[in-house]
Structures are given as structure tokens and as C-alpha cells.
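Posting this for the archive.
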Amino acid sequence: MGETWYRGQSTQAPPVTGSQVGGHDLGDGVYYTNDPKVAELYADTRVYKSGGQKQVVEVTIERQELGRVLDLTRDARWRAYLDQPGIRAAIKTQQNYPKLFGAFVAVEKINLAQYDVIIAEEFVRGGNQLCVRHQNGKPSAVAVALEARWRPAGQGGSPAPAPAKTFDITRLTFRPGTGPGNPAGFETYLRGRENRLNNTQAGWAMLGVLLGGAIQALGDVGIERQVRKAIEETHAATIRAIHERGLGALVIIRTKEWEMQDANGMRARALVEVRIQAGVSPEDALNRWQTEPQLFAGPGPGWRMRPSEFLWIG
């Protein structure tokens, strides 16, 4: 029989990886709770802080799907650590949890890199928490697979709405607003109708072909090649998981150029990074990306950032 885990969040605020006060309880990752009431509390808190609508999702999993699990609720070492004088009282303060967990890991010489998931008590709000650990600072394959199966909580195992039968690739440019009658928004460079593929294995295999046309306007063969590789290899699983949830994926392409022109009046350009953001529309995805707390790679000495480019796969 599978286990059901819950996650509470806001439609306005981006997903939060863990405790926002004093660091993440069990390290960076995607967090769930086994108590739907606790998930409701998290959702209420995030709506209060960021606005939007409350969203509580659930996913039912078999333990073997989680990969390598460090389950502290069944770990005698963790029990003995908590039984030390003052530990249980201290860990109920949210700021103390990550520090005490880190101390436990150090004393027991536990290599967290050997684990995909950590399960432990949630002493502040109750229940247990499950952390699907990030890999190299990003959601792991386990996290992406679980997110693709999210469904609204309380539907008794009903699957999420079926994804669209086709998906489009559209190149967009963001237009800053100039006044009440001309708000900020996206303009379409390539019509999606001209870049439509079937939502099948064969259709997704053609993704790279259409990407070639969509990114040619970047105007730099080297950058185009790097962007295409990032989408086809690094982010392919994430994009497809997003689409299976009935959402679209906004591809954010961040580039830089020399601050000084060369002798021919030209500036060399280079790719900084490619990011992926889910959303119900390009505007929704952009808003989520802009409001999400995150670290960005900088241009480096002698370089300056260029306006971001966007692709919409939805």
C-alpha cells in the first residue's frame, strides 16, 4: 500500500524548498508532510506572505520509488540523539532544527550525498516531513517524477487533468509597458501553430528539430547550440514533467556581452545560463520566476547582461 504525502503552497509564491527561518530543516530540497492539516498551514502561511490562492496537493508513492532513503523516524541513532538533555526542547524552535540536524549528521559521520530522500519529524507543526534532496542545487529526478503526479488533495487518488494532446514552441520577446494603454507583456515572434508537435514519444523526439528554428533569432551559432543542448539534455525531463501536469514551460535564456566594443564596433556575446519555469501562461511563468528567491549567475568582469530571451513550450 502506498504512502500519501502532501504539500501546501500558494499559486502566487514559488515553491519553497524548506523552512524559511534559520535554514532548511533537512537541507535543500522539495518538502512534503504526511499530515494534510500541516500542508494546509503551510499553504495559508504562503498565501498570507505572498498573496495568490491556496494550493494543497498530494502524491501517493511506494517507498522503493524514493531511491535511497534516510528515515530518521526509524533510526535508533536519531532517537538517542533526541533523548539527550535539552535536545527535544531546542529542536521545537524552527531556527534550531537545521543546526541540531547538522550536528547529528557530523557526530554520526553520515554522508548525506548517499541519500535521495530524508524523512524526519516536523517538531514545529506536527507530523513527519519528507525532503527530496536537491542534486547539484536543482530538483532531482525523483523530485521531478513526484511533481508530475501531483493531484489536488482530497480527491481520493483521482489523477490530475490530462495534459494537452499537442504542444507548441513559440519564441517570445518581453515588451516593457509604457503606460496604462500599453501594459508590459509578451509579443510572439514565431506563431505556435507553425511549431506544433504531438504529445507522444515521437513528438517529443522532434523537439530539437523545432528548437533549431525557434532559437535561430538569437543570432549566435555558439549560443544557439548551447541553448539547444541545455533544453534537450539538461532540462528535457523537467519540461516534459511540467507538460504532463497540464502546464507550460517558459525557457529563460540569459546572455551577456562585452562592455567595450572591439575595433570593428562589435561586442562578443556568450550564454550565461538557461532556466526553466512552469506556469499556466508565459505571463504567469514569468511572474513566478521574477518573484522566486534564487541566486543568479553574474556576467563577470568586463561583461554586462543582455535582455533575457524567452521560449514558451506549452
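The longest strand covers residues 248-258. Residues 16-22, 157-163, 188-197 have pLDDT under 50 and may be disordered.
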